[in-house]
Amino acid sequence: MDRGNHAVSFGYEPPTSGTKGTLVYYDSFEHTTDAELELACDQAVKRSFAKLVLYPLHELTVKRMSKEPISALYKREDKLYEWKRNREAELITVDRLEGKRKKYTPLDSALRHFAETYPAPLFLLLTPEMANAFASFTSFEPWISKVRLLLTEEPAPGSEHPNLLKHRNRWDVIAPL
């Protein structure tokens, strides 16, 4: 990075947008309510994020992570697009990487995609169950230094993965407004 002097015109003021970073809601969105989506949107506005990215998981990804039955991706995406129509369109994005791949997408690949596509810093909004699943992966250690986690609710005492407890300073629980 060049740290030398740069000439700028008289009266130049750098643009100040006041927004920074990306909040990625990484979930299946099978049981997510409109109130939870509103809470995510409110947190994105409150914390001055440039983007709120809704990332619905493909059926094969959900089956590998949790073994729970899941509806088709296009149905869950339609629900998200319907919710998005009534909100700030420039803040909210529904990411379609999993829909394009049409197969299991490892979390590492998704995180690399987020880091390359969206402005930094990167925050992941996860349910406690999804956070525990993420903490159980071997790639958790390298990624936790690059991303921060926001959990939708406080994990049940004793249910936290040891890696999640080890990196307690890298995650926080969002509070309803």
Features of the shown structure:
Rossmann fold, alpha/beta, six-stranded parallel β-sheet, 177 residues
Summarize this structure briefly:
Helix content is about 40%, strand content about 15%. It has about 180 residues and is of the alpha/beta class.
Alpha carbon gyration radius:
18 Å
The appropriate CATH architecture is 3-Layer(aba) Sandwich
Helix/strand/pairing category: alpha/beta
CATH superfamily: HUPs
Terminal-residue CA separation: 40 Å
| Topology pattern, helix = H, strand = E | EHEHHEHHEHHEHE
Strand content: 15-25%
How many helical elements?
Answer: 8
Percentage of residues assigned to helices: 25-40%
| Major sheet attributes | 6 strands, parallel
**Mean of all residue-level pLDDT scores:** 87
The CATH topology is: Rossmann fold
Number of domains: 1
How are the strands ordered across the major sheet? 3-2-1-4-5-6
Stretches with pLDDT under 50, minimum 5 residues: none
CATH class: Alpha Beta
